[in-house]
Amino acid sequence: MNSTRxxxxxxxxxxKATALYATQAEALQHKxxxxxxxxxxxxEWGLKYGYKDIKRYxxxxxxxxxxxxxxxxxxxxxxxxxxxxxxxxxxxxxxxSSGTTNDKSKFIPVSRDGLHDIHYAGGMxxxxxxxxxxxxxxxFSGKGLILGGSHAPNYNVKRSLVGDLSAILIENVNPLVxxxxxxxxxxxxxxxxxxxxxxxxxxxMNQNVTNxxxxxxxxxxxxxxxxxxxxxxxLVEVWxxxxxxxHGGVAFTPYREQYKQLIRxxxxxxxxxxxxxxxxxxxxxxxxxxxxxLMIDYGVFYEFIPMEDVGTENPHIVPLVDVELNKNYAMxxxxxxxxxxxxxxxxxxFTNKHPYKFVITGRTKHFINAFGEELMVDNAEKGLxxxxxxxxxxxxxxxxxxxFMDAYAKCRHQWLIEFAVMPDSxxxxxxxxxxxxxxxxxxxxxxxxxxxxxxxxxxxxxxxxLFHDWLKEKGKLGGQHKVPRLxxxxxxxxxxxxxxxxxx
Length: 504
Known about the structure:
With 504 residues, the chain is of the alpha/beta class. The strands form 4 sheets. It has a 12-stranded mixed β-sheet, sandwiched between helices. The protein has a 4-stranded mixed β-sheet with strand order 2-1-5-4. The protein has a 3-stranded mixed β-sheet with strand order 19-20-21, with helices on one face. It starts with a helix and ends with a helix. About 1% of the residues have low confidence.
């Protein structure tokens, strides 16, 4: 008998519970809200803001919106072992988040409660929703390759760790899970990414791997090395039973065609997850719909700020039940890890309300609005997909920024793109991208009208491994680190352009 079919029955209760998201969203979120407020009532934060007197959402609005800079002093005290600060008891784990690729790291508290009722809950539900979509799965007939980061001791606090969230999850996972995952923990947690790729390759290439989990860019590096060592160009020849890749961390659009070429199987599935250092928020529950299901019964209470209000003195903030479809929001979370009304920096757009489904549209700091064009990462991904489709191109990585004024007093957007497969015509690629962005974004179209404000965009072809080298130079290979897709300044792109002249 198919062992997966037998084990799948254990996931039926969660499949039924998530079905209630369509009709019970407000009640489920209210239950989470009450539990979080009650559990944190006697913490320093809870006492400061009178959590014992908070009975309804309106009472909660007296708590100010937080960014990392506001909570950093509290987090530092928690990192030194102080208890009952932002969350009850002692928090021992801290996820080092790049969030952006600037030099400052954020240390996001990961409580024992949050580890289980947010992060591990998301991992279990990823499997539950996958099996629901693929009843013919043989998921448990082999092992899962889970690509993680690394961790290190946190100051000198006993049993306390700081590092990539993925490393914290691997370190604390139920020992039974280790029976169905590869590689072994000591390889999975190596800090040197290039050594890790080599050792993962040797440890997994002769295993029966049925599923992959990780960031698409870093997983691609591992898979390509495995193919190189095995002397083949089709991963199915290495792992014939491979059937699903749970991916997240960066948009999958630029990588989709490359994965299809590496894994030439009509049985292969791709399932997006939204698992950030701050929490596990979304899962794709329909292979044909890129939107993700918002996970509303974990230890996360959601609020949203319309993009036009972000950064204003008194932003309009709405709970989940008041969001509108097809509108860009900055996400605000309160969690069982002790984050309260915390802006995580991601922007989302809802596509459905019964149940609540959404797409990630970008980051509050990763956009181009130098000339009023309001170009979001979501726009960029869609435009690039059309340009690739029209020209046969495949993209490894990219970054874009404004050119404020050149020698001829002209302004434009400059795109630095590393291609896995060059377009049949770079000029055609540029034109399709530019036209697509105008079709997708009316503000961009208005600024491009008759070339008055914005000239046609410029594409610079990046040398092979440019973005890899840029991340390596910053000590940011592997883990959750990612290339900034869009930037409103030229800081990142100037560094990359300088490195683009150096051939390795």
